[in-house]
Amino acid sequence: PCLRCFCSSVAEKTGKVLGEFCRCYKEQYGVALFNSVRYEIEGNGGPQAQLLHRKVPLEDHVIYSGNLFQYIEENKKWRNRFCVVPHNYGLVLYENKLAYERDLPPRVLVNSAGYKILTSVDQYLELVNSSLPGVTPKSGHSPILKCPTDFPLILWHPYSRHYYFCVMTGKEQEKWRAVFQDCVRHCNNGISEDSKVEAPAFTDAVRMYRQSKEQYGTWDMLCGNETQVLSNLVMEELLPELRTTIGPRLKGKAQERQRTWIQISDAVYRMVYEQTKAQYDAAMAKCEEERPQMESIIRTDMDQIITSKEHLASKIRAFVLPKAEVCVRNHVQPYISSILEALMTPTSQGFAEVREVFFKEVTDMNMNIVNEGGLDKLVEYMEKLSHLAFHPVKMQSCYEKMDQLKLEGLQQRFDVSSTSVFKQRAQIHMRQQMDDAVYTFETLLHQELGKLQGKDDLCKSIQRILERVLKKYDYDSSTVRKKFFREALLQITIPFLLKKLAPTCKGELAKFQELIFEDFASFILVENTYEEVVLQSVMKDIMQAVKEAAVQRKHNLYRDSMVMHNSDPNLHLLGEGIPIDWGEEYSGQPEAEPATDKRRRAKQVVSVIQDDEGVLHYKAGAEAVLQPGSPEPRELDPGAPPSSPDGVEGIREALVKESLGDGVEVEERLTNAVPASPVPGADVLSEARVPHATPASPTPGAKTPSPSAGTACHQPSDKETGEEVAPLVSECSPLQPAGTTESGEGVQTEF
Question: Which of 37, 155, 354, 613 is the most buried (most CB within 10 A)?
């Protein structure tokens, strides 16, 4: 009965929060629809991008795959797992590589939105200790987690379950960390920018709801898709109460209480997620149902709606603007240049690094073509280059420039909880600009190939196209960064101004409601118009600061007057054509090659897994895997990978045996993600390449690994990677610890 009451209480409070949010969403939906139709009619585009944009960058490709150890909480043991990161950046964990090749169901599916990647057990313990105040293990007692190696990788979430991994070497830890961070970065950016109505309506509704609770400023948990963000919003309100009511009732040692608390928080989060998805989907469906009628009114009465809104804005401006201008002059204007400089330095260094990495990759490719022979090598290198932007390790030098971003005293003054929002946004822009540059280079080179006479012509053409693309990159990079700086300055200053002005202005806004015609009340909101007026009060200063930085040529920014008009009038037409498949067009594969083999090789663009490498070799012993629909585990073939040792001591013993075994070859066998084969398009994560300053042909007699027969037999679907959520089984079942079990019964899915 107590458990049922608890479930009912959580559902009731979740419903209350979602009810308030859905009211905000419905209001913002009408405003967003009006803005979208008005933009469509009037148009207000900025400078035209010079680089082409690839529509589907990574369809049917795997980002990375390899072996690592996972800690299984249910039996407190470490197991060797085969991890695949598909094109949608989910984490898919299989029992072993053979299970992946045989298309067996994965053990775990993780959507990493909202997670932090930790590489230290101490960092993790600090976060765990702070999550449940008053429950800290005494000195000398065993911590909640022991890692068998010195290279842990922990995925921590404030509400959901945690995931524990470890690898054998520091190099592997850095590689997997870069991969995991890429997954988090991609999954955090889960609200589609292609949606011109639903996305702005949702984000504005979240902001309005939080401001109604006196919560201004940036929010770290605006992560993932709409349902995940709303679940975080609900948990933000539920968690303090859960700590108060459940915390004192937890029994056992401090470590057990911490572990139980994490499981309860995860179970509640799952309950909230399920209810949130149903309620939000219903609200969105209702808005979509009303959309045709609303859009008809907007298109018919557009001029009247605009006139009515401008009349309302003029009245609010007369009331608010004098107060806002004083606030801007005294509290914001003196700090704009400092904030801008703090943003510009690391961001521009990151974009400069993107340019450098792109230049070096193309130049190295050109040198290798000179030494190794023409078009055949070009195909191999172009398939690798085409996915450069999605290479976690090669892009890491660009991303890490943003780690220098520090607002220091400004962060406290403007109530910025964290700079992670700005870091992540800049990194996403870097990846997009890299892919745009690569795709533009690909397209121009592909167009030229039919006109070239030999290797010398090819190399000259590559150099000429590279220079053209770099000029386009410099222009687009400047445009993107200026827009990013303006948006970041607004994100920092507007919430601060709204909070400052709230005591004197917010209470007076209700009197302006009578100025809105009832027929237009769905498209004009007093609160939104008020915020637009506040934005106008500071926008002039922000635009001027960014403009001055460009005039002074700081950080290679172009002046607004620098516009590249029709430099390549037919280029964007080329970008609309069929995507280039270098292997299909130019590889010269024999006709007899089966289509399935070609498709499998193409899918493994980023990582090729070798049968004889990347798996830790333990004592011989067959591992049991439960087949779909089979009630009992079955024994695998004798050639299957041997079972993993259980527990910390078992792994340590295995490591000792490995280290005493084969000397030099140990390092190769302990590497979880192995070097790739030189099959065209086979591995964007390959570290080996010819040095920039000293091009040379490959070492005679050098051995190159060949891809295994089953390297790409199975491509996880969106559902496998946690994009869809498995329904919970009953209203109270979520309070049971969720997760996968070693018996193979079921798959744990993380949203």
Answer: 354
**Two structure tokens written together for 703:** 């051995």
3-state DSSP call for residue 569? Answer: coil
Q: Is the pTM of this model over 0.85?
A: no
The one-letter amino acid at 600? R
Residue 1 has pLDDT above 50, yes or no: no
Task: Give counts: helices (H), strands (E), the chain.
Answer: 20, 10
| 3-state SS assignment for residue 692 | coil
Tokens read off for 745: 């019964």
Q: How far is CA 499 from CA 126, 279, 644, in A?
A: 32, 30, 56
Q: Within a 13 Å sphere around the CA of 686, how many CA atoms are in the beta-carbon half? A: 26
Q: What is the DSSP letter of 508?
A: G
Residue 721 half-sphere exposure toward CB, CA atoms < 13 A: 23
Three-state DSSP class for residue 600 = helix
Exposed (0-12), middle (13-18) or buried (19+): which is 415, by Cβ within 10 Å?
middle
- For 263-298, the pLDDT digits (tens) are 999 999 999 999 999 999 999 999 999 999 999 999
CA nearest neighbour of 33 among 193, 207, 204, 196: 196
Burial class (CB in 10 A: 0-12, 13-18, 19+), 431: buried
What are the tens digits of pLDDT across the range 156-187? 999 999 999 999 999 999 999 999 999 999 99
Residue 381: CB atoms within 10 A of its CB come to 21
Radius of gyration of the chain (CA): 28
By the 8 A CB rule, do 387 and 58 touch?
Answer: yes
Q: Do β-strands 91-94 and 77-86 pair in parallel, antiparallel, or remain unpaired?
A: antiparallel
Place of tokens 């950016």: 189
Closest to 435 (Cα-Cα) out of 383, 385, 389: 389
Buried b (16+ CB within 10 A) or exposed e, 673-697: bbbbbbbbbbbbbbeeebeeeebee
Q: How far apart are CA 211 and CA 203, in angstroms?
A: 12
Rounded Cα distance between 703 and 668, Å, is: 14
Q: What is the pLDDT of residues 373-422, one digit of tens each?
A: 667 778 888 888 988 999 999 999 999 999 999 887 787 888 888 899 99
Rounded distance between C-alpha atoms, residue 599 and residue 530, angstroms: 56
Q: Which of 106, 263, 85 is nearest to 184 (CA)?
A: 85
Rounded-to-integer distance, Cα 413 and Cα 546, Å: 21
Separation CA 659–CA 661 (nearest Å): 6
CA distance 650 to 648: 6
Question: Can you point out the beta strands (E) in 111-264?
Answer: 116-118, 152-156, 163-166
CB 739 within 8 A of CB 726: no
Helix (H) or strand (E) holding 418: none
Contact 167, 176 (CB under 8 A): yes
Let me know: does 80 contact 67? Beta carbons within 8 Å. yes
d(CA 581, CA 563): 33
Give the dihedral of Cα atoms 186, 190, 192, 193; nearest 10 deg.
Answer: -60
Query: Which tens digit of pLDDT belongs to each residue from 93-137?
Result: 999 999 999 999 999 999 999 999 999 999 998 898 888 766 666
Amino acid letter for position 259: R
pLDDT band per the 50, 70, 90 thresholds, residue 446: confident
Q: Is 471 helix (H, G, I), strand (E, B) or coil?
A: helix
Predicted local confidence at residue 377, as pLDDT: 78
Task: Give residues with Cβ within 8 angstroms of 293, minimum separation 6.
Answer: none
Residue 522's contacts (CB-CB under 8 Å, 6 or more residues apart) are 27, 30, 294
Angle (deg, nearest 10), helices 226-246 and 2-42: 150
